[in-house]
Amino acid sequence: xxxxxxNWLGFWVLALVLASGCSxxxxxxQAASESLRIGFVAPLTGNAEWYGEHQWKAIQLGxxxxxxxxxxxxxxxxxxxxxxxxxxxxxxxxxxxxxxxxRVPLVLGAYCSSVCMSMAPIAxxxxxxxxxxxxxxxxxxxxxxxxxxxxxxxxxxxxxxxxMRARGATRLALLFINNxxxxxxxxxxxxxxxxxxxxxxxxxAFEQGASDFRSQLAKVREARPDAVxxxxxxxxxxxxxxxxxxxxxxxxxxxxxTLESADFLEAAGEAAEGIVYPYLYDPNSPEAVVRAxxxxxxxxYGEDSEMWGALYxxxxxxxxxxxxxxxxxxxxxKDGLLKVQGFEGVTGRMEFxxxxxxxxxxxxxxxRGGGFATLAD
Length: 377
Hints:
Helices cover about 40% and strands about 20% of the residues. The chain contains 12 helices and 15 strands. Helix 2 packs across helix 11 and helix 5 crosses helix 6.
């Protein structure tokens, strides 16, 4: 990726003199007077970097298409990308920089829920529209400038709890990353599973960046569940699954939207086979809009797109006419997004409710033959 980690010591001194030493990468490098600048915040290094890298690929594809088609009313669209490393403090710092120094009207990001929660108050205070992919439903009350392009934890929790119960699960163990994303998602799964008559027999947390899950898994084994749900990021998920297999856990495994990634498959190996999880994008869909997008993505990057990038590609296509109408006017952008109706993208329908959230249907997927496959039911 070529991104550098930012040293934020003396940030405001740098801001006052408008130094150019802050780490950033742009899609089209143009003078500010010749371009329309927006921001992008994601984990571009660190334990969740797989997601940020793929988001950035799809954003570059979308921005290039916009610019090749004449840009935004003749202005090049430029994206200033910042690395949050999935750390709330760093997310807040880069959001402040984008608002105060780059003065962008719109930021795509973040991915990690704890980072979104640190960024949202800054976006709201500076009237910067924030279009994110975070899971925590606390964002519904984060302010009128905060929008989300994927369903939140409440929708995901109900969907996967229903799927587990439909497959005969009655005793569930929960393993979750101990941050805003993991806790909020785990809580919704637990609530919905119990509401359907199921019993949660174990709850075990692990820290972001953990690599040894054996003590938590031993407690799960002692609780004798008939299903295990786990939620974390790619590398943690993979190591957890591999260690569960090594310890002899053979219960049905379920996970979250974050499961589908090459990093997970590499870390989990054969132990990944049969895991069931929700998703929002099918690269094998026969829909023309999906085929066209995935053909372009594969031609450029040599691989299929995944969900997280596809969501941001949809967001850019949706935003183009709003940006053409509003330019740098963030209040206009906010109002324009709320008026979007019936947009059909590669991830399906996208429009926002009064809280800035989308409602989208899930797919149920599984790991099969060392890859990812959609389940018929």
